[in-house]
Design a protein that fits this description.
4% helix; two-stranded antiparallel sheet; 4-stranded antiparallel sheet
Length: 140
């Protein structure tokens, strides 16, 4: 699900004929939303948004992979592989390359000092999956 100022927009829907759950493409490919919670009951989420990168979701064929990771010091790194570039409908394609942004430990906004790191230009390849290794090191 994706929260918008005008309400909830459904991303996962149920096929009326077959009853099968299916994932739909986002209507907002140039935005990244993160929900942060203060407790395990997930009460009162703090929603933060950036329009400096695409959404955080890795994908390979039909599998979706985690792309938001906490470093050992508590900083959160939000990777945006930008799988939306493969969409055939131009309205669902993002303008951004694969990138990463940081949310500092204890903060509830994206870190402007860190900015947006363009992984794709730096590496010469699009990002498809990522894993936290240790400290602030990640395998891409």
């Amino acid at each position: 699900m994706l929260f918008r100022d005008d309400g909830w927009a459904r991303i996962i829907t149920k096929n009326a004929k077959s009853g099968v759950m299916q994932v739909n493409a986002t209507q907002y490919p140039n935005e990244c939303w993160i929900a942060m919670f203060d407790n395990e009951q997930m009460d009162k989420p703090t929603l933060i948004k950036t329009d400096k990168q695409s959404y955080s979701c890795g994908r390979m064929r039909s599998q979706y992979y985690q792309c938001t990771w906490a470093a050992s010091n508590g900083d959160i790194y939000v990777f945006a592989p930008n799988v939306s570039r493969t969409q055939t409908d131009a309205r669902q394609r993002s303008d951004y390359k694969s990138s990463v942004m940081r949310i500092k430990a204890g903060d509830n906004k994206f870190d402007d000092a860190y900015g947006t790191v363009d992984i794709e230009t730096a590496c010469g390849h699009a990002l498809y999956r990522c894993w936290h290794l240790s400290g602030s090191y990640f395998l891409l």
